Amino acid sequence: MGYDIERFVGYVNEGLLCSICRDVLEDPLQAPCEHAFCTACIHGWLVHHSNCPEDRQMIDVSLLRPLYRYMKNDLNRLQLHCKNREYGCEMVCSLESIDRHERECEYSQIPCSNAGCTVQIERRNLDGHLAVCEFRSRECPNGCGYTILSAEDTQHNCVAELRTELELLRSEMICRVEEAKHEMESRLDSQRRHMVQKESILQNEIEELKSQMSRMMSDVRSLMAAERQHRQELEQAELEKREL
């Protein structure tokens, strides 16, 4: 839907009106036949039709294009009243800047920011409403530090609230202690498994060293026996030499 033509100041060119809703173009698109429409209007039309609502020429969503620049400029220069005129806003500005103004307009109806409150109030009166809103929150005046709603004043009990808070803290502490305990046990198990693996590796290395040492001792004994045999042979040879 477009902008209500009654909001505009002065004459509005016919070419700047939507061919479907007949209001001033909002987020406009143009068909190849040069008829212009609000985006929402033409998309809704093409759900049930496949032609232009003005001249019945065949059109498709893919054929729609942005408005010509000169038409877009003319559209943006149009002057119109703020939508909050009925609430007292007298601002008149260009269509190009109306959205920015209305987002910040002091006469805009906005919801109360307090949870549970359904009141819609003008932005300029929001602070005054928040000061008396029955859903406003504040800190307990008795010093318990609990945040309460005005509507709950008669039901608030500092001792009960503090007891509840204490129970929550105790439960949270127990949970954290259990988590820390499980984490430490997990780490100890991991370290224990690692130590067992290291012990097994070291034991295998020791056995391998023992085996190597045994082989070396056997080789040494063999060498010593060979040396004795060689010495005996030399002595025998010496004796035979003397006899000769």
From TrEMBL:
An annotated GO BP: regulation of canonical NF-kappaB signal transduction
Keyword S-adenosyl-L-methionine: no
Domain RING-type positions: 18-56
A GO molecular-function descriptor: zinc ion binding
Residue stretches in coiled coil: 192-243
Keyword terms of this UniProt record: Coiled coil, Metal-binding, Zinc, Zinc-finger
Domain TRAF-type: 101-144
Pfam families according to UniProt: zf-C3HC4_2, zf-TRAF
TRAF-type zinc finger span: 101-144
Domain of life from the UniProt record: Eukaryota
Annotated protein name in UniProt: E3 ubiquitin-protein ligase NRDP1
Organism: Acanthisitta chloris
